[in-house]
Design goal:
Structural class: alpha+beta
Number of helices: 6
Number of domains: 1
Distance between the termini: 15 Å
Largest sheet: 8 strands, antiparallel
Order of helices and strands: HEEHHEEEEEHHEH
Helix content: 25-40%
Strand content: 15-25%
Shape: globular
Number of strands: 8
Radius of gyration: 18 Å
Length: 213
């Protein structure tokens, strides 16, 4: 949760204060992909069902090791953030974080175990996505000048580069899927070199961010 809570609370704070043009609005339901102990990508849309529909693509295309669905809710009359967490090992967790204040004065409680969620369908959808086998990144073909093979180069990219190329295609696909309803897919590259490779592989520049928030 230490990877997810800070950026999600910042997302909610920004949505409540507005960005100077759109004004204050609710935070969209957001699905977050975690891999190698860091946040890799996220998709936000105004519709819970649309956000959840991205679970399988994130699990397969990004090789996510865990998915987190963060959303605003009201529990017993108290505003809160809910986090539905699922790992590939089927370890599930439901976490609550109460919200107080408004606008720039918004404050958040310490996240606590929420017990059994009111909507178990969210965890089920995350589990279904994570049950699918990820794409192999060791067989991403070289393209363009990479295929010259002057010195007998292998026909496939090194796995580390193949990983970024597959990531780029996955995020591009997600962005094309959700942009029509006002959604957004974002990707956090592990390094400047990986960011440039993702762009070269066709990731929209607007999807490349430094942090989730």
């Amino acid at each position: 949760m230490t990877l997810v809570v800070p950026p999600v609370t910042e997302l909610l704070r920004r949505s409540r204060t507005g960005d100077g043009t759109a004004g204050a609005q609710p935070m969209f339901p957001t699905i977050i992909a975690i891999r190698n102990e860091r946040v890799v990508a996220a998709v936000s849309t105004p519709r819970m069902a649309a956000t959840l529909s991205c679970a399988q693509t994130l699990a397969v295309g990004l090789g996510a090791e865990a998915l987190v669905l963060a959303a605003e809710a009201e529990l017993d009359g108290t505003p809160a953030l809910t986090y539905s967490v699922m790992t590939r090992e089927r370890h599930a967790k439901y976490v609550l974080q109460e919200i107080t204040g408004e606008g720039a004065a918004t404050r958040f409680s310490v996240p606590v175990d929420g017990g059994d969620p009111a909507n178990g369908g969210i965890l089920a959808a995350l589990a279904a996505g994570l049950s699918q086998r990820p794409i192999h990144v060791t067989q991403v073909a070289r393209t363009g000048s990479d295929t010259s093979g002057t010195f007998g180069d292998a026909p496939f990219l090194p796995a580390e580069q193949g990983r970024v190329v597959v990531d780029a295609g996955t995020v591009r696909t997600l962005q094309e899927r959700v942009q029509g309803i006002g959604g957004r897919a974002v990707y956090i590259a592990r390094s400047p070199e990986a960011a440039q490779l993702a762009l070269d592989a066709g990731m929209p520049r607007a999807c490349l961010v430094n942090t989730l928030a």
